[in-house]
Hints:
The chain is an alpha+beta fold. The protein has 2 domains: about 5-25 and about 60-180, SH3 type barrels, CATH 2.30.30; about 185-210, no CATH class. Helices cover about 30% and strands about 30% of the residues. It has 7 helices and 10 strands. It has helices at about 45, 70-75, 90, 100-115, 145-150, 160-175, 190-195; strands spanning about 5, 15-25, 30-35, 40, 55, 60-65, 80-85, 120, 135-145, 155-160. The strands form 2 sheets. A 7-stranded antiparallel β-sheet has the order 1-10-2-6-7-9-8. Strands 4-3-5 form a 3-stranded antiparallel β-sheet. A hairpin with a 2-residue loop joins β3 (about 30-35) and β4. The longest helix has 16 residues, at about 160-175. The radius of gyration is 22 Å and the shape is globular. The model has no long low-confidence stretch (mean pLDDT about 90).
Amino acid sequence: MIYETIRPDIEIRQGDIFVGLPRIDISLNEILVTDEQGERVADWKDLVQTITSTRVILPIRSVTAIVATQDCDATHGRDITLCEIQKFPIVYPVCKETNSPKSWEKIITQHSRSNLKWFYLPPDPTIGFTEKMAVDFALTLRIARIDLENLRLLRVGRLNSTADEHFRERIGEFFRRYPYDEWYPLNKEELAEYIKDYPETKPFPWQTTNAP
């Protein structure tokens, strides 16, 4: 499909896909601390007032991720940023009930143009993707470049040139996108129709008056 397999000695670059990377999940309200008092649960806002460093126990899960850092920084920078890869229905729940090729075609082409938070990755058993996957740009992790270079055996492949160019643009679109409430220019009638699909919508002041 859209992937290339590469030798472990090749330098890391944007679009490289790694498996088995550690992701730390932490609750700042319940941190398991190990100190002279033994193990105890603490709140970070209390800890930060009294310590500069401490030992804690953190839950770690193994994830698949793709390098988001640009090539030059991936080669010379101190750290490398990656975005987590998950099953497509997890990243984009709208597709959970999708079955027909026609419906998938619309999601993969049309929906991807308007949904900037993810990047579609098709199945390919050669890199371990047995089902449709997606990059979630909102889920990032940072790993020291030297550490990731020592883990290049966990790199299962990289995007080919066509997919990599698209991926690069999508990252840029996601991080430079302008967040706004898309319903702000609707009149009262149009807003009423919009609220039927998005009931959590809060009207702007000018949408609650009788002014045209």
